[in-house]
Design a protein that fits this description.
It is a single chain. The protein is mainly alpha-helical. The protein has helices at 4-46, 49-81, 95-103, and strands spanning 83-84, 91-92. 77% of the residues lie in helices and 4% in strands. Strands 1-2 form a two-stranded antiparallel ribbon. Strand 1 and strand 2 form a beta hairpin. Helix 1 (4-46) runs antiparallel to helix 2.
Length: 111
């Protein structure tokens, strides 16, 4: 069983992880996306079209892989921080977490 303090502490930790990971994702994806736009403009002006498109495509795929890896890492860390019902073991996420916080009971088993 969770005490109210432990439950609130774990919820706060989960929110801290979500905030930190979202900030890191934005810090990486937005500047790199803007840098890609600048790179596309420069390559189109300086290289022949076929070569520029090949380079732009490779850089875009690397960018998508990096952002995808960060999203996967964020989701993995959030899943690890989810609260679980001490009786049935169901992970409390979204509405289930809010119901448990308000009522003190799991919405799956009632425990």
């Amino acid at each position: 069983m969770y005490t109210r303090e432990e439950f609130d502490r774990q919820r706060a930790e989960q929110k801290r992880i979500e905030s930190r990971e979202a900030w890191l994702l934005a810090l990486v994806s937005v500047p790199l996306g803007l840098a890609q736009l600048v790179m596309i403009r420069l390559l189109d002006a300086r290289l022949e079209h076929q070569r520029a498109v090949a380079i732009e495509g490779a850089v875009f795929l690397a960018y998508i892989a990096l952002v995808g890896a960060q999203l996967w890492r964020m989701q993995r860390r959030l899943r690890a921080a989810l609260l679980t019902c001490p009786q049935c073991g169901v992970r409390l996420r979204g509405m289930s977490e809010r119901v448990a916080a308000a009522t003190g009971k799991c919405d799956s088993c009632g425990g």
